[in-house]
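Chapter review. Work through the record for Secernin 3 before attempting the end-of-chapter questions.
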Amino acid sequence: MLPSSCDTFVALPPSTEGQRIIFGKNSDRPCDEVQEVVYFPPMDYGPDEKVECTYIQIDQASHTYAVVLSKPAWLWGAEMGANEHQVCIGNEAVWGRESADGEEALLGMDLVRLGLERADTAEKAVDVIAELLEKYGQGGPCLEDQCGFTYHNSFLISDRKEAWLLETSGKYWAAERVEGGYRNISNQYGITTKIDKEHPEMREYARSKGWWDGESEFNFATVYSFLTTARIESAGTRYCEGKRLLEKRNGHITAEAMMDILRDKESGINMEGMFMTTGSMVSVVPRDPALPGVHYFTATPDPERSVFKPFVFVKNVHELGETSSPSFGPDDPAKKKPRFQSKPDRKHPLFVKHEPIAAIMESYKDRGQKITEDLRQLEKEKVGEMENILQVGIEQPDMLVNLFPGCVLKEMSVYSKS
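Structure tokens for Secernin 3:
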């Protein structure tokens, strides 16, 4: 299996327009996998409570923050998401010298969700993920089948003031703070000599393995990556293309610019084939704490044929039913051992409506162009509405409790008319 997974982007002033952080991610997964968008409210828990992650049970936190997540429907964690404190996280698959073929533990996607549920800043999310990684480890199949596809993870994390890049190899990790400009990551290590936090034994472990002589300047990517780059060649191309697209818009990066980047097929960022872009996210987070963040999700494959729909954290958010997949409880083949003996239908209502329309758009150019225009018009209207609250704040929170589901219904209406 080629290392085809994702691209994640963040832009901070002065690369953005206005005092805003723009976060974006494409989740590239198997083409038949359903990605759902779900919301979980804040919760309090007792001292001995546990949380059942994808493969293992761990200690629950005393309090979890409200989160909105875009996640493969078969697992507990998430590919990307945001929390009520405007922390955003996306993860990438990475492969290096350390074997990823460990026992079932926490998936990188579990760590994304745990970081969002437990951290109110980007730096705290780094600490949360690092602590959980050291305590429980990372491992287990990352696809809903028996192929044993496994990987380690890197994370791009942002909040209202800065971003952090966290890269892992087994239980070892390094983190770099990003305070301005832009940054993108793909399926390769990107932290070099600027390391702002690290596992206390990370360097000594590398020295003991003969990967580092203990005297030359320590470069995390050089030390922990494969000796040859053949395995990450496709990731390197996408990384360079992503960096080029960010540079092209430097100083003028907006939500719309990030959506354009995520839709770019020529670069390979909007991926097609057996691995394809199954879900996309763009977040706009003002530095002013009095202003809300707006988080856009597609909940459907191929952002070129999808609508970025806005979500804003307010009290009493309505359930995101049209983008929630069916639950199979303890009978789910992903939970029963041996796992993945069958694959149930996980399509949520929006996915069901979107699937035949995407086929029409693929097969009939004129008809597809008209559908695309209608979808873009809906998206443009919503981005315009959100621009107002990004500038002046939320005057009537109750008007936003049905924001995302209401936009989903309008999207489904476009499909019905088509």
